[in-house]
Amino acid sequence: MQPLPILPTAHLFPVLDQHLLTLLRALEPADWLKPTVAPQWRVHDVALHLLDGSLRTLSMLRDGHFGSGGPASPAHEDVVQYLNQLNADWVRAGQRLSPQLVTWLLEVIGPAYNTYMASLPMLQPAMFSVGWAGEEQSLNWFHVARDYTEKWHHQQQIRQAVGQEEPLLTPELYYPFLATCVRALPHHYRNVPAASGTTLQFTVTGVGGGTWFLQRQPTRWELGTDYNGLVTATITVDGNVAWRLFTKSLPRAEAPHHIATTGDPQLTDSIFSLITVMA
User: Fold this and answer.
1) How do the domains of the chain map onto residue ranges?
2) Is 179 exposed, middle or buried (0-12, 13-18, 19+ CB in 10 A)?
């Protein structure tokens, strides 16, 4: 089994931006009010959140300005609560911004954000770790890839709401999203017992999809590709909805209609609770 390589994604941010701006400029006023799969957020709210992500990155990481306050503790629950409150406060305040102004601000801030992300040395430690992958210290390439998944899936939330999902479901843009998200699997499966050598095949179908293998080692699970040995269980996810599985927007009752499994349910059922977002 081949270990997973470093995954460069900084060059894709301008491509995502162009898709986003083209989409937003073409929306009708009623489209901005349509609900998305993000709970209680409309298209306007998700666009505001995308803007907030870029502004927050530049303020904190580039400029060293963290504002006031912070999570009550480094514990996962406290960090999530803190981020949820930040997100809610921004979206509430942003209701006074018109769709045209939100689009213009995204256009203005995008190049500065993209330039900063591309400037980060890929193999240097990142300021923030990728918590959903179980890392206490991450390298910049993974931090950037994690931000790519954020930009990708929030744009896709808007696209799903207005019926224009296909532009992001391409090998160029979708595969890097998936190849980043699957890196949550070893941490997610950390408490799933299995004999050493047990191997789980995880496949996302369709254009932009791929196949990965999760294998139990004596003390941990490891993820890789190009495995030709015995497979103990398989999980196959419909590529059209795989992004929703990773981002808390595929209801458990709906998921079995899009996910096929073989083998021991003890090995496959954990996939239904996989999450690769913090808040």
Assistant:
1) 2-123+131-166, 182-273
2) buried
